[in-house]
Amino acid sequence: MSSIWQETLEKLQKDLNPQHFSTWIKPIRLVSIERDTVRIAVPNRFFLSWIRDNYADLIQETLSDIGAVSYQLQIEVARPDEEKQDEPAPGKAAPSIEIKRSGTAVNPGVYNLNRKYTFASFISGSSNQFAYAAARAVASNPATTYNPLFIYGGVGLGKTHLINAIGNAILEENPDMRVCYYTSEKFMNELINSLRYAKMDEFRKKFRSMDVLLIDDVQFIAGKERTQEEFFHTFNSLYESHKQIVVTSDKFPKEIPGLEERLRSRFEWGLIADIQAPDVETKQAILKMKAEQNGIDLPENVALFLANSVSSNIRELEGYLVRLGAYASLTSTPITLAMAREVLKNILVEKRRELSIEEIQKTVATHFGIKVSDLKSAKRLKALVLPRQVAMYLCRQLTSCSYPEIGEKFGGKDHSTIIHAIKKIESKMAEDMQLSATVASIRSSLES
Ligand SMILES: Nc1ncnc2c1ncn2[C@@H]1O[C@H](COP(=O)(O)OP(=O)(O)OP(=O)(O)O)[C@@H](O)[C@H]1O
């Protein structure tokens, strides 16, 4: 059936402008074709309404022409764990080995991995360096170095991406390994189904036969007694057989309310790595890569504007990029700063008004009990150097000013001085929790 979809895609590719095709059609995934209903999944809600308004009729007509059936199109938003590969429903036997079009065998012991989340498509910066290095170490030597690996961080910061990248990298080196990616919610639902249909033996066998178990968003099992118990036994069984376990969460194990003590302590056995909010440079680099992947021509200053406008959530950042790409493509105009400001004005204005360098200088000076003129001076006193560097760092984080513009407002300093100061603060913050907390508190008072 998917050959109908394949042919539909080929036809649409011929009929549509290449950028429209790569922005809107390529990311669509076929879910199923059953009788006269074709279900497709799209990456997010914005995408869904765009497809509905602009492409649904065309897709439906093309499908119907090719399949010689009057198809109804159903469009839904893909959940990350639905981007699956050959996952058997609970209780059903795993599919027999399939042959990909390239001729390579598909490993039936791989569950739900999202193939597009790889290390190659993950940008590492100071905010995620530790988690990234730990993930790579685990991928190179599963079940030897860090077991379990516990990755935690805020919403949309790349946990799902990284945990899938581990699975994909392991499979590249060990194509026959059994690798399973599940959200903890899906684990729970499958458990409930298995209990209901008396399939617990199969459930246990499946999870305990994995070489690599990747559980995303484990915080959801907190407070779910039966799920925690089953997960605990799965964990023990895998751990004792020297199989790799990787878990992600939005919180540090100790901070997950309702998480059983025995699970919490096991999560602390291995390595705990955090992902912090990305800095402006990392956000820019991610934007550039995503723009390239989607065939969107994104000028440097617009990338900087977006990176400065969105607090930290990369998913949100991607949403804005898609919106700009769509606007540019549909109006056949290039993306410019003015256009980006206009297209995103309602969303971004609500999020944050642009802070001025002067406001930042004033707040930092007050915090440290010094004068604004001291921040702008060249005095090398220790009591002035740190606040000055903090102020420069925050100016870069919270405004869209360039290094030379910031330098200008700090008594005409060279851009290299600003870059140096920012690097210095970033590395100090990585080691000094107290300084990190100070910067975070100044930042939140500026943003409130
Ligand atoms: N460092 C990065 N490099 C490239 N892409 C990234 C990076 N961090 C996040 N992303 C992208 O941002 C989007 C959101 O990331 P992801 O779903 O992994 O976040 P998450 O931390 O799992 O969020 P949630 O808490 O909602 O589960 C994805 O499309 C992912 O590819």
Automatic annotation (TrEMBL):
Keywords carried by this UniProt record: ATP-binding, Cytoplasm, DNA replication, DNA-binding, Lipid-binding, Nucleotide-binding
Pfam families: Bac_DnaA (PF00308), Bac_DnaA_C (PF08299), DnaA_N (PF11638)
GO-annotated molecular function: ATP binding; DNA replication origin binding; lipid binding
A GO CC term assigned to this protein in UniProt: plasma membrane
Keyword Transmembrane helix: no
Region (Domain I, interacts with DnaA modulators): 1-87
Binding annotation for ATP: G156, G158, K159, T160
Main location (coarse class): cytoplasm
Region entry Domain IV, binds dsDNA, spans: 329-448
PROSITE patterns, A to Z: DNAA
Similarity annotation: Belongs to the DnaA family.
Quaternary structure annotation from Swiss-Prot or TrEMBL: Oligomerizes as a right-handed, spiral filament on DNA at oriC.
Function: Plays an essential role in the initiation and regulation of chromosomal replication. ATP-DnaA binds to the origin of replication (oriC) to initiate formation of the DNA replication initiation complex once per cell cycle. Binds the DnaA box (a 9 base pair repeat at the origin) and separates the double-stranded (ds)DNA. Forms a right-handed helical filament on oriC DNA; dsDNA binds to the exterior of the filament while single-stranded (ss)DNA is stabiized in the filament's interior.
Domain note: Domain I is involved in oligomerization and binding regulators, domain II is flexibile and of varying length in different bacteria, domain III forms the AAA+ region, while domain IV binds dsDNA.
Identification of the protein by name: Chromosomal replication initiator protein DnaA
Taxonomic path: Bacteria, Pseudomonadati, Thermodesulfobacteriota, Desulfuromonadia, Desulfuromonadales
